[in-house]
Amino acid sequence: MQIISTIDELRARLADERAVAFVPTMGNLHEGHLNLVKLAREHGDCVVASIFVNPLQFGPSEDFDRYPRTLEADCAKLQGLADVVFAPAVNEMYPAQQTVFVEPPPIADELCGASRPGHFRGMATVVLKLLNIVQPQAALFGKKDYQQLHIIRRMVSELNLPVRIVGGETVRADDGLALSSRNQYLSAGERGEAVFLYRTLQGMKQAILQGERDFERLQGRAVEALAARGWLPDYVAVRNRFDLQPARHQGDLAQREWVILAAARLGNTRLLDNIEVCLVDCLAD
Ligand code: PAF
Predict the structure, then answer these.
(1) Could you say which architecture CATH assigns to the domain 181-284?
(2) Which residues are annotated as catalytic?
(3) Does position 251 have pLDDT exceeding 60, yes or no?
(4) Distance from the CA of 149 to the center of ligand 1, in angstroms?
(5) pLDDT tens column, 79-117
(6) CA dihedral 129, 172, 168, 198 (to 10 degrees)
(7) Nearest CA to ligand 1 atom 5
(8) Ligand 1 within 6 A of CB of 204
(9) Residue ranges of the domains in the chain?
(10) pTM value?
């Protein structure tokens, strides 16, 4: 496995590769990332993982400075799974102030975007830069960041990028908590409580499968249940799985596939989760 930190060296290394599968990450890798890297092997002959904490996607009061940077441990985990690790410094990706950005679709202002203005613009901009640098035939992203995956799919489709986007299933701890680099911010007590977010989504899914279609009532009850346990809910939303538009109300027989998305703060940690709800098997994305 080669560890490369400059764009020129990476381009030279990949020049003769015909089928690159790419997993962009911000490092501090856990099983969720490693699962994507393993899946990447099914989508290309050469697997590239990038590790780059992208300043453009953090707001001024967010955790850019304290975001865990664990390059050495990350490379050890990728050994035998990836062929190349691309780990550029900030001034390699942004040698001058970035003045050109991807304008993401309007959905980027909703859900996580409502409380993180500019986040998806910064995310989409770095993902486009990375795709241009690596030029993979496939790029893999986790469904844990469902809205991010949706926005990347829209960008790739509407900007005609020659890459196949593959979504990887969320990997969970034994109790069901979605793995995330931010879980390590949780205290021991918070870690025990954290799974309640997923349990809440599971309860909502059961209700929908049993015929509940008053999505607003469901959302409101979930927010109340989280708040009653000391969480600060950001949103809980039932959305159409394909366009992330609000789920329509009762009587709409055409709509059979939803995703329930939630973000809530537990202490100082903002946790994110989602669950797909399909009346029959989920259709391919
Ligand atoms: O999901 C992430 O880790 C980041 O948002 C990504 C896609 C690597 C872009 O910085």
Answers:
(1) 2-Layer Sandwich (3.30)
(2) 33
(3) no
(4) 10
(5) 999 999 999 999 999 999 999 999 999 999 999 999 999
(6) -90
(7) 123
(8) no
(9) 2-168, 181-284
(10) 0.96
